[in-house]
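User: Predict the complex.
Assistant: Input components as received:
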Amino acid sequence: MTALNPTHDPARRSWIESANQPDTDFPIQNLPFGAFERDGEPRAGVAIGEHVVDLRALRDSGLVEAGSDAAIACEAAADGTLNRLMAMEPRYASALRAALSDLLKSDAPQRARVDEQVRALLPRVDEVALRLACEVGDYTDFLTSLHHTERHGRYKGLADPLPPAFKSLPIAYHGRASSLRVSGGEVRRPHGQYRDANGQIVFGPAPALDFELECAAWIGRGNALTQPIPIDAAHEHIFGYSLLNDWSAKSIQWFEQVLGPFLGKSFHSSLSPWIVTAEALAPFRKAPVPRAKDDPPLMAHLNGAFDQQHGGLHLELSAHLSTAQLREAGSAPVRITQTHLDNLYWTFAQMVAHHTSNGCNLRTGDLLGSGTISGAADEARACITELTNAGKDPLRLPNGETRTALEDGDEIVLGARATKPGAVSIGFGECRGRIAPAFAFAEQRVETPA
Amino acid sequence: MTALNPTHDPARRSWIESANQPDTDFPIQNLPFGAFERDGEPRAGVAIGEHVVDLRALRDSGLVEAGSDAAIACEAAADGTLNRLMAMEPRYASALRAALSDLLKSDAPQRARVDEQVRALLPRVDEVALRLACEVGDYTDFLTSLHHTERHGRYKGLADPLPPAFKSLPIAYHGRASSLRVSGGEVRRPHGQYRDANGQIVFGPAPALDFELECAAWIGRGNALTQPIPIDAAHEHIFGYSLLNDWSAKSIQWFEQVLGPFLGKSFHSSLSPWIVTAEALAPFRKAPVPRAKDDPPLMAHLNGAFDQQHGGLHLELSAHLSTAQLREAGSAPVRITQTHLDNLYWTFAQMVAHHTSNGCNLRTGDLLGSGTISGAADEARACITELTNAGKDPLRLPNGETRTALEDGDEIVLGARATKPGAVSIGFGECRGRIAPAFAFAEQRVETPA
């Protein structure tokens, strides 16, 4: 299947030169979907190099064959949101990516016609304001890294640091959809209740802010209530993936947590702007890391033949930290985490199958976060809590600064690249956010959002 | 304020006779908002006795003064959803209720003109299909009954059955919005993983199904991210209230719960169809039950002058159970719970203020469940787990049947009435659901919802 799809052809290059640079996240083999604002209006688009294809302009251009699946896909996205397109059978988005690949390749027959309308069709991505890629109904966050879970269990002093259910099912909780935001801009330090150094319960700006590096799957077609998605069909329901920074106010979380995370997370979660499609990632599929011999057997409803062979991805992920001092000195951000999707104990298809096994309905645009993707190695610890051994071993930056938590002005940039010999590497684009100081509580005004 | 609002006038009666019956939930003083389907199209409406005012038909009727606040409100609801109306300043919904009260009162000057269009304007509620009242963005469920929390802590054998945070903040978790359903119809028993009597982890139909009687607040106007709603403004953000049955698969929940409830709840949650407005409930406001003398002091951001005086409601709530055997014998449902909103330790305004205290944004249509409203008295236990002392003392029905959990065919009906001397009592309508047997897992097919 993979070999037949011309959008995967590693020999294909684009006449857009920025898409051919070896370090670009968006070569012609990627073509991820996203949303942006242009002239004050919402638009859906596809990233290519340093540009973005405006899908409404594309629809109006006459460049896509009328009545074709690609044209139908383009029309579905013309209102500026991706939800309708994501809800359709996968062949529509697939046809649109194939049509775009043909328009953007070096030897595109229609190159001259694209050039005539290039300003309307292909704005530079830095000329537009990126938006959240689609409307999220429900957001679920999982806990699927054994190392992340085990380390946190040890910090809590648990005799068995791994919860009994961990190897039987992908543990999860419902997250807050309203405070999901696209990468960029400020992450305001939240107020909250927590115990201070004397054990007193106080209310104030949360002292212990952390990032958590995650990968998130976007649901394409959903399922009806009472109708679970079988593990063998689960991959077909995943439209694509983005990076997720699950910012965490640990001091709030430790105090509040009885029924799971709540205000410790719901102040802001950041997503990278582009949905890298499952189709573009198909050449990077791999078998997930096998379960250990003494792990409990995998239950039938989580055990899929395709998933056991192809449910993982050759995907490397990283986190970089820059501080106000580093930026002032003109120093580059410091890489603090380098990890791999192999560090998940469960696949995204298993998350989908488990999530719906009770009949719960997923809807188009629902988001499934992987949980923090920490590995066994020190460099693969994917949050500051782990990187500092729960604060005992402060993070030391090259300029002498130390951190046990994020300080105001600190900026985290997450990245991810799928890489495999023989394939053109594709990236996720960045998921960036900078901590802004808490508002004084009295400064806060209630504004009704537009 | 209350005395001046003619919609509260206890002397007002309606020319719709079913609205004047002493046991009706929907006298002319109530006028709650809801949604329904008519001729295959979504409509917004207002309940009156056994009828519902079709707001699109009302807009088209010429009976509401053009350009008035009431007409603007009517227009906002004409697309069949309430979200736009709920997002507006409260005076619009208020004007619409006042206009309806004037059209429906016994001596309405426009009675004859209403009569001419009565079939279009006022279908019987049993002639239409009720829908979920509005589109829910995020659904949050709280845990605010001290007695419910304490009993469950004791069942778990905790030394201190009340979590340390309970009296400092209203504990909550994010719930699943996609599986919220309007009252009525079947609640399909879910599959899930749980430990059987031998301690083995199995996957199958969940044996321990329970109901949980809750009251839920609907958010009207929202707030922007980073801008908390002060406790003194919180009441203005609550559009109204409904009943919520937070069906729970306890066997699943006990096994899965690490980061809070997930599949043990997300298979189905039921809401009563009508949003009883905060305005209609204003005559029933009361001071919340005072905190005990040795409770920790209330923090400033949860301590509102209005809320401390008027943050409670004279609201009695009940649950009735009927079984297949009872129905076969023609026996009436058995009342198993009789409780009061006074059994909440926190007010809804405190839930709003806490929820947004970290800057989390609430959106119009967001739903805040109170948690199970159990009281100290045996009759005020609001779920079967408590009613049976965690299964030790089975519930005995008049026909000799016993229950430690809900069985297939069991039906739960929740009800609530606001009552106060000198005011006309208003009700919430029912929140009904009947347990249907689990599908065989192989019978389940993936269907893409319409």
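Residues 443-450 of chain B have pLDDT under 50 and may be disordered.
Let me know if you want any component modeled separately.
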